[in-house]
Design goal:
It comes from Nonomuraea deserti. One of its GO terms (molecular function) is biliverdin reductase [NAD(P)H] activity. This is NAD(P)-binding domain-containing protein. This protein has an eight-stranded mixed sheet, with helices on both faces. It has a two-stranded parallel sheet with strand order 7-9. It is globular and about 45 Å long. It has a single domain, classed as Rossmann fold. The longest helix has 16 residues. The mean pLDDT is 96. The protein is of the alpha/beta class. It starts with a strand and ends with a strand. Strand 4, helix 3 and strand 5 form a beta-alpha-beta unit. Helix content is 36%, strand content 24%.
Length: 204
């Protein structure tokens, strides 16, 4: 598959690049930090962009089978990164006829348990969570085969397969490794059974 990956040089993105290479996918990697690819297996193509330039996104989508966005919710200096990129990407995909879209979001946006930690996270990370929530709204309103993957706390370490996905709220959300997360995101991009759904992801 030819897969466009936004946020490719995040820690999870680097895990995804390695797993995609193992699976034989052709990756078009969007990043604002090309230097972060030094010393890692290079993707097939590198685009120095954050996914908000329509012309650049349209060009990258030529011949693509799927898009995976790992862009986080924006911070104080750039509070609308995820939402703005989602608007550009979904419009460009519709125009290019590329159907499959997988985007990452944050489980605490919807999570209710454990109650106090979720409340604290929403207070401390109000800006990125607001951006991620707006991104979800943009994606869920588009006419594509989209899947939202809401992540819990990410940890380093090898893939173990200890990861679960659910459309329902999680009774006891657990951390999950970036390697397992990357594999799960690629699994989602490779199929369309979860199209038009939001999945809550947890360690198992």
């Amino acid at each position: 598959m030819r897969i466009v990956v936004l946020g490719a040089t995040s820690r999870t993105g680097l895990c995804l690049l390695a797993e995609a290479r193992r699976r034989g996918h052709h990756i078009v990697a969007f990043t604002r930090r090309p230097g972060a690819l030094a010393g890692v297996p290079s993707p097939a193509e590198v685009v120095h962009n954050d996914g908000r330039d329509p012309d650049t996104v349209r060009a990258a989508l030529a011949g693509a089978d799927a898009v995976i966005s790992l862009l986080p919710g924006g911070g104080r200096r750039d509070p609308h990164l995820a939402a703005e990129s989602a608007g550009v990407v979904t419009a460009a995909m519709a125009g290019a006829g590329v159907r499959r879209l997988v985007v990452v979001s944050a489980y605490p946006i919807v999570g209710v348990r454990p109650r106090v930690p979720m409340w604290i996270l929403r207070r401390v990370l109000a800006t990125p969570y607001a951006d991620a929530s707006r991104m979800e709204q943009i994606v869920s309103a588009c006419d594509l085969d989209w899947t939202v993957a809401r992540l819990n706390r990410l940890v380093d370490g090898p893939a173990t397969g200890a990861i679960t996905t659910s459309t329902g709220l999680l009774a006891k959300p657990r951390p999950h490794s970036r390697a397992d997360t990357a594999a799960t995101l690629l699994d989602l991009a490779e199929e369309s059974d979860t199209a038009r759904s939001a999945l809550n992801i947890s360690g198992s």
